[in-house]
């Protein structure tokens, strides 16, 4: 076993004696030199002890009890032609208790194994449920993005603004769709990859007031970049849009050079 055990349930299975062969040898070899895993094993043994105590008591079938009583009587019966043996008070009960415990030890082990199996299965089921919830949330977000794109593209009051390149980046291009009522912005363009410590940032320049950040983005490997930002404060009348080169993570107000700019008609 290279590194730590990859399955948490292996500690429970080892504590129950359910690991065999190479898996058991690998676990023992790893436990000999790993204090962290030794603590996990101790925790597993504690869990098993608690689960065994939590298992509901079960009454054995009457035939099992009669069989054990018959065996106790046979062991305590005086042999013929022998001196009478004095049986201390409680000795028969002690023999019976030992036999009773030996008979029910396998049952207790089965109950403990069943409880651990149900716990492991429940843990795996919870993980699967969480994964499904995350996948559902991602799918819902993608559907909402698609719906916003559709609303933006089909709305009659959506503005289309072409962004012209600066002299530092000739040949680049950009286009913005903006709807003040919906508070949605879509940018599509072609830009070279920025330096590692830089990012592109889109700005809405209102008819009055300071520029409003519409988000940061980085082009793909082929130079294309696109994004949808929502929500923006609704009702902002746009005078222009611009793309600047900013430090990674963007800035509250533009500080870097403008690489694309276009006036809203």
Quickly describe the structure.
44% of the residues lie in helices and 22% in strands.
Explain how this protein is built:
There is one protein chain. It is built from five helices and eight strands. With 265 residues, it is α+β, with helices and mostly antiparallel strands. It has an eight-stranded antiparallel sheet, with helices on one face. α1 (9-15) crosses α3 and α4 (62-76) runs antiparallel to α5 (91-154). It is elongated, with a radius of gyration of 37 Å. The chain starts with 8 loop residues before the first helix and ends with a strand. The mean pLDDT is 78.
Layout of secondary structure:
Elements: H1 9-15, H2 21-31, H3 35-54, H4 62-76, H5 91-154, E1 159-165, E2 173-179, E3 184-190, E4 198-206, E5 212-217, E6 224-229, E7 238-247, E8 258-263
Antiparallel strand pairs: 1-2, 1-8, 2-3, 3-6, 4-5, 4-7, 7-8
Helix pairs in contact: 1-3, 4-5
- State Rg: 37 Å
- List the helices and strands in order: HHHHHEEEEEEEE
Q: How many domain units?
A: 3
Average pLDDT, to the nearest integer? 78
Structural features:
265 residues, alpha+beta, Immunoglobulin-like, 3 domains, eight-stranded antiparallel β-sheet, 5 helices, 8 strands, elongated
């Amino acid at each position: 076993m290279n590194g730590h055990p990859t399955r948490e349930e292996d500690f429970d299975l080892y504590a129950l004696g359910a690991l065999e062969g190479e898996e058991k040898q690998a676990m023992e070899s790893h436990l000999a030199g790993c204090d962290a895993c030794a603590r996990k094993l101790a925790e597993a043994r504690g869990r098993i002890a608690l689960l065994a105590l939590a298992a509901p008591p079960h009454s054995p079938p009457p035939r099992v009890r009669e069989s054990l009583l018959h065996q106790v009587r046979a062991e305590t019966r005086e042999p013929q032609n022998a001196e009478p043996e004095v049986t201390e008070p409680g000795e028969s009960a002690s023999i019976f208790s030992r036999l009773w415990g030996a008979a029910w030890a396998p049952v207790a082990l089965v109950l403990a194994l069943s409880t651990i199996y149900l716990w492991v299965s429940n843990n795996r089921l919870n993980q699967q449920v969480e994964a499904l919830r995350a996948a559902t949330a991602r799918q819902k977000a993608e559907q909402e993005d698609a719906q916003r794109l559709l609303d933006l593209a089909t709305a009659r009051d959506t503005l289309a603004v072409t962004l012209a390149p600066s002299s530092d980046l000739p040949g680049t291009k950009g286009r913005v769709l903006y709807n003040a009522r919906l508070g949605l912005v879509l940018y599509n363009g072609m830009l070279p990859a920025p330096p590692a410590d830089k990012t592109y940032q889109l700005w809405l320049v209102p008819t009055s007031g300071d520029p409003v950040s519409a988000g940061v983005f980085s082009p793909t490997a082929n130079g294309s970049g696109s994004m949808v930002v929502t929500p923006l404060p609704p009702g902002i009348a746009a005078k222009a849009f611009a793309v600047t080169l900013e430090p990674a993570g963007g800035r509250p107000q533009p500080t870097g050079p403008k690489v694309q700019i276009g006036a809203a008609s």
